[in-house]
Design brief:
Rossmann fold, alpha/beta, 235 residues, 9 helices, binds zinc ion, 15% strand
Length: 235
């Protein structure tokens, strides 16, 4: 029996013992997801957005946006699977603050469907390292947990040891847009070489883009040609 058959059987057994259940309403899940069809249809999907920075744009507006034309970001493009609104916010919070790992699996599978369709596959996925004090508090990095499922689904390797986040910066969530850029400067360092051409940085929520921009600058030092940003949600 090959691995594919073994995994197929394991899935059947798992679905029989723990049938997929909607994390949002408690109904039966569909397509093996912990979401029912009705809840999945109502997720806040991304509409028209700037291909460069991922910022939402009015329908028919030219891309890249005016701001990207004037000040191009240090990454090549940014794609977000969802808008940071309910119930996506509920799933992200369920993982971050409620430690519900079923939320990581669901977000990983949903984003895998989106990026499979909309993005060019990178050589590796690099989850944004968590601020060390946040990591101590939480015990896990939500972006890495989502990335594990994304990586397995898309069969793209994960690289989570090449970049580390230093102790110097304050947690970004407490700061204004301007303070975020200043606070995050120099926060990441390369721990080892990454010898690939194309990476996708994965973040759970991209707000001002300051964190992913700084990580992209750090990765450029490793002479990576193409750096994309994949966000589960864009605020
Ligand atoms: Zn539901
Ligand atoms: Zn833009």
């Amino acid at each position: 029996m090959n691995m594919k058959t073994v995994n197929g059987w394991l899935n059947i057994i798992q679905n029989w013992i723990y049938p997929p259940t909607c994390l949002l309403c408690g109904d039966s899940g569909e397509r093996g997801l912990d979401l029912c069809g009705a809840c999945e249809r109502h997720l806040p999907r991304t509409g028209t957005a700037c291909l460069r920075c991922g910022e939402a744009l009015p329908d028919g507006a030219p891309s890249p946006c005016g701001r990207c034309l004037q000040h191009p970001p240090p990454f090549d493009n940014c794609l977000a699977a969802f808008r940071y609104e309910e119930p996506i916010r509920h799933l992200i919070h369920g993982l971050k603050f409620g430690r519900r790992h079923a939320c990581a699996r669901t977000l990983g599978e949903l984003t895998a469907c989106y990026f499979r369709e909309h993005a060019e596959p990178p050589d590796v996925i690099v989850p944004v390292p968590l601020h060390p004090s946040r990591y101590r508090e939480r015990g896990f990095n939500q972006s890495l947990e989502i990335a594990r499922h994304l990586s397995r689904n898309l069969r793209i390797p994960l690289e989570f040891q090449a970049c580390a986040r230093g102790h110097t910066s304050r947690p970004q969530a407490e700061l204004s847009a301007k303070e975020r850029t200043k606070n995050i400067r120099g926060a990441f360092r390369l721990e080892r070489e990454i010898k690939v051409r194309h990476v996708a940085i994965l973040d759970d929520v991209v707000t001002t883009g300051a964190t992913v921009s700084e990580l992209a600058r750090t990765l450029r030092q490793a002479s990576i040609e193409r750096i994309d940003v994949w966000a589960v949600a864009r605020a």
